[in-house]
Each structure stands twice: as structure tokens, then as C-alpha cells.
Amino acid sequence: MNNKKQAKSQLRSLLERYEKNRDEIMNKKNKYTEADARREFIDPFLEIFGWDISNKAGKSLSDSDVVTENMINKREKPDYLLRRNGSTFYTVEAEKPEKDIHKDLQPSTQVLRYGWSANNKIGLLFNFETFQIFQTYKKPDLTKPNKPWKSLEYTEFIANFDLLWKFLSVENVYNGTTDKAINKITPRTATKTSLDNYFLGELDNWRQMIGQDLVNSRDKKKYTDSKGNFKALNDDTQTFLNQIIFLRFAEDNQLEQHDQNELDYIFENSSSFSKKLNDLDKKYNSGIFEKSNIGDLLSPDTISTISESLYYPRSSYNFAVIDLGILGKIYEQFLQHELVYDADTNTVKLVDTPQAAIKAVVSTPIELTRLITRKALSKKLSNIQSIDQLLKLRIADISAGSGVFLVSAYDLLISKAIDLLHLRRGAENIEASLQIKKQLISQVLFGADIDYHASQITKFSLALRLLHGESPERFRGQLPIIPSLDKNIKSQNSLISKDDISNLLRKRPELLNDLSDDEIDVINPNSGDLQHFDVILGNPPYLNTEEMIASSKLEFELYKSKFSSAYKQFDKYYLFLEQMLSQLKPDGTGTFITPNKFVSIGAGTKLREVLLNHISSMIDFGATQLFSGKDTYVAIITVSQEKYTKLQYAEARSLNEAISPNFIELDTHEMVDENSNWLLTNNKETLELYKKTKDFPRITDGFSVHVGVQTSRTSVYLIKNKELLNSSNDEIIRFKKHNKIWNIEKSITKPFFKNINHKGTYYAQPETDSIIIFPYTNNGKLISSEKLQKDFPLCWNYLNFYKKELLPKNLGGKRDVRPKPNFNEWYVYGRSHGLTGWDKEKLIVGVMSNKPSTAYDSNHMLLASGGTAGYIPIFQGTSDYALEYAEAWMNYPAIDEMFKMLSTSFRGGYWTHGEDMLALVPFLTIDKDDPKQVKLYEDIVKYIKRINSSSNKSTVDILVSTVNNMLNELVKLRIG
Q1: How far apart, in whole angstroms, are the C-alpha atoms of residue 737 and residue 724?
Q2: For residues 862 and 873, is the Cβ–Cβ distance under 8 A?
Q3: Which helix (H) or strand (E) element contains residue 875?
């Protein structure tokens, strides 16, 4: 791959060649074609920026960086798909140089349609004479001119090379630089008009129209039962939508060809509608057209509206470009709603499903889906030597959703089949036979989901994927085209069987009261005859204990009775990890993406016991956010029935890093601490230091970890520095709050440190950023109302002004105060802890930080209790080690790495330094009989005192480096 300098030089050479031949190229008489331009200039141009046009790397079709459209038998598809991790990053439309793409709007219209259909924010148009970048995040508006975001003539390429490199170089596309550049020019509201959101909105509108027609044209009892269920209505509506989407997909992929639009052909004569669908059912045998009479029940207006919405010019959908992963993502959101019929108003409306009302589904990003699938299948596929072996594989997703992982697995299987059959020719791939493709989706791939509609969409998605790349001439003698998927794609609960329910009811007959037909429908138990698989993969549901109980109390009890990982406040993904392990063949492997917090929380104790000897690798994304709109901290975990003594562990800050993770090997038994937590880090030195100091005292053993104050009404008690006004009386504090000027007695206030936004301190005396009204004596007793009125009348007036805000709940107010105060103690703090001990020096530790966060405070400031958002005070306690030495140790880089190892990650790359972590981190004591250690200790204290008193950053930096070097030496002397 070229570096930037080499690429610029090569582009100059290419431009010189183009300039030299430009007159001949632009001469119409020479009939210089688009194919010529692609071969001579556009392909080389893209290769300069690192795009592997001819697939010299020999990647599989599913992984190749570039997919080119056949230049002779061109379909309605982009000329180039530039891809990252198997997902389309750019669509590129190519033209011959002679065409004036400034005036001819047809090419730019294609770019806008292709880019939008691919769910990309950017699309490219190029004839080498001109290079144009279009923003494609919203549905094309054909009533407006197609203006590019950037248009460059070939003479401007070198002057704008930095821009071209930023947007086009493979290096920048993969390292995220291009994403940042695209996001910078894309409005924040872009997602509202993106393909996935727009299409989902249309699907929702259509199904309401269809549902309304169905209840109007049939006996309403067919769609409404005594229990208020509307399953038949939703089944028929989804069936019809699947039918028309399938037909549009087949049409844009040229599998169905008529002289008119396919839907017009199907619907033009209502009397022949059912017959046409019966013919399609015989042809495809997918179950999609089995119910052939639904369209007969719909009004002409509904059919016309839907049909027009799916075709150009009203529609910009191109189903040859829409990625099936995107379609799966759309359908996952589609499944979060269902139709209900309101008899009072005779209307059909959409409501959240019971499951969605508990917790919304967050779709797995397409690139992540493909990365997980490659991780899950690569080892198995590398050992396959024949088509017969390939067809004997058994691959499953036991929480399949819309089937995105199974579709991704199919892509890899097809690529392997092409390699085995030697059908790959450079960048070109010849399709495997239809028979092999049918066997792959019906014999190799298995899926299960508790939601019936999800399983139907999985079948639908696999049927569409089977047809991708097919042509009508390959169907001859192959009818029906699509095999039945009823035996391998099922609607059932992968976790609970009918026998599980029977066994629990025998043990606990009182649960019979929770058993009902509706409850059984919700649980949807499997038959108990579960298969075992070579590979299991996917993204199981994440539901906490409360959410599971809200879904089904009986199901929750079943989980607790069956799974050893169902411990304390367990999450549903625990159970899927355990179930996955039990359904693997002896040599099988399972790969899930799940939250990573189970490695260090109490509820994960039993799950860690289940997985410890069976986990082979873990790619930990830490605080990196991969799921849009949802804070989720995840890892890719691979397990098997085989027992392991080593774990391959890697930290990844991006999907790109996860493609080629930098694994280190951890001993599975040594990585377990005394609390059964897993000590996971990519820094072996940190782990070694922790092991060698495991018998040392903890920080909390000798030092006193205090609790901050909690007022439960900070807005009243706290006076920020910026609210303070000049006062002529040193005993009076003057301030402005809520547009009113106040005076209060200074002696009833204390200095306070809030400063939460700065997330840490690190060797800097924190400056008081506010003062707090403290209506207590030094020994923590509340000052009586009588004394307040007498000795602090100004403060008493101020508090009374806000009495309504301060009034506790037990006295008729809204403030949460515990314990409940008497009627004349309404101004007490919200909690009674942390009221004493502030009249001495201490350390202040920033709880949430991504760097060392301990500072020395000699100003006796109060702090607030703030969970992960605040600060912790540490006082001398019983330790005979100086606070300054503790400060140095807690700011020591190796120890901060230890905090990171023991903690869980949070958004922004932060980890916690909270009290629970302080109780785990060892404290390095010294051998007081060793003069070298004593001297180092004394020097460290001396240097820290100098650091704490210095305001010069350069001086502090030098001294901190010196202290860390002394700690390095002390660690070697103490533990080797």
C-alpha cells in the first residue's frame, strides 16, 4: 500500500498521462468508452489510494475491498462498491470523460440513489475529468438540483490532494479518519432521513394501512380473540409485506422481468392475483407466497400507495444495492412494534410489543456482525478440504433475531465453496451452483428465536441471500428454487424446554398460579430435543433481572432453577453463554458479543466459574462504544467444550484493531483474584506486580476512607465561586442566587470542592470552587433552630426563603431525607453521614478518571458523595506511612494501570478509582530494616511535599518523573 508521498507522486504521473492523451480521449469520433476510462484511469486512480481493484490480496468475495459491476452486461448497480470489513463504505458511479457530469444529471441521480440505498453518507461520481463527492444521507429529492458537496477538475487534484487522501485512502477509511471527516460535514439530524429510518417509517405506515384494510374486509373475530391477542392480524400483514419486498428484490436483481413494474404486473388484475402468487409459490417454495389471497382483501388505494412508494421516481430504493444486513437491522426495529385493533374507534394502530416496552432492541452494526462471524468461523473453515465436509458443518444462532449473523455466515460459506470449487479468478467470482447454495441454507445453517415473527424474517432474509447473484437461466431444472427452512429455522425459546417447566412445577407447585396459556406463549418452550453444533455465534439479548421479571415471572423462576449462572442480579446473556457451551459439539466453538462487566462484578461469579476453563479468547472493547445510541461495554468471547489453561486476551479501541487483535496469553488460574474476579489486562507487568504484592496490605487497611456529605438539595446549600460578590465585611459572605442578593455569616460555611467536570486532580492542590452552608457543629450535631435564629440570623432567613424546597417528604415536602427529621429540623442534610472529621489534611481521589487522580488537600475542604461522578477523601487513619507517600503510590503509573485492570470501563475511556477499588489495590510497605528502602521512602515524601507546594508545571513534571523512578527502584528492592 502506498504512503501519502508515494500516492501523490503516482497521481502526478497518472495525470500527466491523462493530459497527454486528453484530446484523443475527449474526441467523440474516437468513441472512448466508460470501460476504457475505468481500465486506463479510474481503476489506477483508486489503486493509488490503496483500493485493491483486482483483488491481488486474494480475499474472499465477502471480504474483498472492492466489488466491480460487469462493464458489458451492466445492471442497475453501482460501478464500484468500495468496502470496509465487508460492508459498503462508498458507492462509486463511473462515466466516460467526455460526459459533462456538471450538466447531465442522470449520473448524479444514480449516485444519490445508490449511496442512499447503501445507507452511506457519501457517494462518489468520477469520470477522471471531474471528481465529485455527494452527500447521500437523505432520500434524494428529484425536484432540486443535484449539487455535489465537492467538485474537483483533474487539474485541481494535486492542489487538493490532502482532501482526496482524507476521504479516499484505504488507510484513513480503516483507521477512522475518514469517518471523522464525513461526520464533520454531516448534519446531526442525518439519521432521521437515512435509508434505515426512512424505510422503517414506510413499513410502519404500510402495515397500518394493510391492517386496517384486513379488519375492514373480514369478520373482525378472525383478528380479535377474547384475550385481546392480534397474532393473526400481524401474521397476515407481515406476510403481505414480505411478499412485496421479496418481489421488489427479485425485480431489481433481474430475477423477475416483465414489460412493466413487477408489482403492477402482479396487481393489475385482482382476479389473477392469487393465481400469480400461487405460481410464485411453486417457483420459489419459500413459504412467502403460500398465503396467496391477502392482496385480494386490500383496497386499490392501499395497493397503489405501497406500489408507487416502492418505485422510482417517487421512491429511490434500489434493492440490488440495499445490503441484507441493513434490511435485517430495519426488520429488528420493525419487530419492536405490533398491530392492535381498537374496537371502540374501529381503527388499527401500532404499539410497542411487550418485550419492547421492557427494553428496546439495539441492532448489531453490520461491520461488527461480519467481524464476529469471521472470528467464529475462520478456524473451522480453514480446516475444510471439500464441499462434502463443508455441507456437514452445523452452524447456529440460538437468538437469531432477524438472521443477520446467519446471513453473514452464509457469505463466508459461499466464499469457501467458491475456493473449494476453484471458481475464483482474480477479482472475479463465479457463483457456486444453486444446489450447493440451497444445501447451505437448509442443512448447514440453523436459527432459533423466541419471537415467531423474527424466525419468519430470518427465513425471509436467507431466501433473499440465496437469490443474490442468481440469474433466471440458472433456475432451469432447479425448481423450486428455495428449499424449505421449517426444520432448521424455528420459533422457540433456546433456553427453556417443556420438560423444564414440568420439572419446576413438580418441585414448586405454588408456581402453578403463574401458569397460563399466555404465559406459555410468552415462554415459547422448545421440545427439549436440542441439537449440538460445530459453531454457535451471535449477539444474545441483554436483559437485567428486573426486566426479565417484568417479562415473565415464571420464566425467571425457570432460569434460576436451571442455570448455575443465574446468580444474584444476573443478566439474560449469562444464560445464553451457558446454553451455548452446552450445545456445542466436543470440538465445537461458540462466539458471542456480550457485555464485558461480568468479569468483575458479584453477579458474574457463577458465570465466571462456568466459563473459566472453557474460554479460549476475549477481545475486550473496554469503553469503546460500538452500538449507536446506547452505552454498552462489550467483548467478543469465544468458548468451547475443550478445557483451556490459557486465555488469549486483547484490548481493542476500534473495530479495525479487533480485526487483527494484539493478543497476550494469560494463565486462566493466575488471572483469578481472591474475590474470583478476572484480572484482565494487556499489560503483563501490571498483572505481575499485582501477583507479587497480593500479600501486601490494601490502601484501605491503614488509611481512612471517608464519606462525603450529601445535602439532597445542592442548589440551595452550595454557593459557587461565580455567585460570590464583593463584601466589605470579612465575616459576611455576599452572593447572588436566582437573581436575588443574599448575605450570610461566613462562620456557618465551609470550603467545598465540587469540580466534577474535571474528572480528577493528580498532584495539584484542588482549588475551592464553592462554599457550602454547614448547619452543624464540628462534632456533627445539627445546630438547633433556636441557635440558628440567634447566632446566624442571615443564614436562617436564607434557609427559610427556600424552606419549601428543603422540606423533607415526611414533613410534606419533596426532599429525600434519611433518617426522618423532626418538624423543627427541616433544614438537615439529606443524609447524616460524613459530617465530621474534615478539620485535617487529606488526599482527594477522583473516582472516575482515565489517569492518576490523587491530590493532597491542606485546605480542609468538604466533598460530596457522588458515586462514580464525585471524589473520595482519604485521611491518615492508623497508618504510620505519610499521606504524601500514599499519594505517590496511588499516582504511580503502574498502580493506575492496576486500577484499570480491577475496574470496569466507562464511556470516554474512564475507569473507576472508587472505594471498592481502593480495597483491592495493594499498598507497598517498606522493610524498615533496609536503609536503602528507608532512604527512598523519605526522599519520596520530601519530593512529594515539594510537588504539592509548587505551581510551576515544568518543575512538577520533572519531580513527578523523579518520584516514579524512585518508586521503580523501591519496587525492585521490595519485591524483586
Answers
A1: 9
A2: no
A3: strand 871-875
